Amino acid sequence: MTLAAAAVMTATVAAAQNLDAGKAPERLFADGCATCHRSPRGLAKGRFSLTLTWFLKDHYATSSDTAKALAAYLESVDTPPQAAAKPGAKRTAPHPPKPSQTH
Questions:
Q1: H-type alpha helices, the chain
Q2: Which pLDDT band, with edges at 50, 70 and 90, does 70 fall under?
C-alpha cells in the first residue's frame, strides 16, 4: 500500500511541474502563440500591462511568472521605434559660433 501511495504522490508532483519555467519570453511565444499569431507585434496594443498579464494567466500561461514575462515581451515589441528622420528631410549642421567683436 505504501508503494502505491508513493507512486501517486510522485505522479502528482510530476504533473504540477511548470514546463515553461525558465523559458525566454520569445520561446514562450514561439511554442504557444505562434501557431495562431504570426508575429507578437500588435498583440499588446492598447492593453494595460496588468490586464494583459491576467488574461494570459487565465487563458494561456502556466503560471503568474510566465504570464508576466510574456506580457512584458509583447509590450516590448509594441513600443514604437525611435523617431527617425523623415525621408528627404535635410540635416543641418550646427552653425559655427559667431566671431567675437572687440573694439
A1: 2-16, 25-32, 49-59, 64-77
A2: very high
